[in-house]
Write a structure and sequence with these properties.
The protein has 184 residues and is α+β, with helices and mostly antiparallel strands. It is built from five helices and seven strands, in the order H-H-E-E-H-E-E-H-E-H-E-E.
């Protein structure tokens, strides 16, 4: 289950110190040279979500990133990719069913960030359809099985936890302000 409160202040301190601030500096240097830097790595969003949700990460790639929360990130409006490996796909899919899912969108050179969440049970139609494809049962056997959850699905079914605009919290979810539960 997600915490009763979010640690927005600590998450924004991390965001400013290691993501937003450094990227803005790099962006100026890259633009001066006619190049575009990569914004941030998915691991940056995992740390950000870990702080925001008050969850510790785990080393194993066979389960959720934060113990009982799977973290996905995508450029604003994009889909979130789920990747299942040949030897552990069923174990990972089963863990995804039992976990909460945090979806992070970022765009406009990190001046816009949204964090959404949902329960794994809300994604059951996705998981059932993916499992029905019986990945890795046909030849040639591929190395990874990739599927996506669309931006539209997240906006319709998940709960907005945090919106950051120009580096500052524009919206914060509070348990008492919503009927929706985000639990893992």
């Amino acid at each position: 289950m997600l915490p009763d409160t979010l640690d927005v202040r600590a998450a924004l301190i991390y965001f400013h110190a290691y993501m937003y601030g450094p990227y803005q500096g790099r962006l100026r240097l890259f633009r001066d040279r006619g190049l575009k830097p990569r914004m941030v790595m998915s691991e940056d969003w995992e740390v950000f979500a870990s702080i925001l949700l008050r969850r510790q990460g785990v080393e194993s790639r066979e389960g959720p990133d934060l113990g009982d929360v799977e973290v996905k990130s995508a450029v604003a409006g994009g889909s979130f990719e789920y990747q299942y490996h040949r030897k552990s796909w069923q174990k990972k899919l089963d863990a995804d069913r039992r976990s909460a899912h945090a979806f992070v969108w970022y765009g406009d050179d990190l001046r816009a960030v949204e964090v959404w969440c949902c329960d794994g049970g809300q994604l059951e139609d996705h998981f059932a359809a993916w499992e029905a494809e019986r990945p890795y049962s046909a030849e040639p056997v591929r190395q990874r099985f990739r599927k996506q959850v669309s931006a539209g699905w997240v906006r319709e079914h998940a709960t907005l936890l945090l919106r950051v605009v120009d580096g500052e919290a524009d919206f914060e979810w509070r348990r008492e302000s919503t009927v929706a539960e985000c639990s893992g």
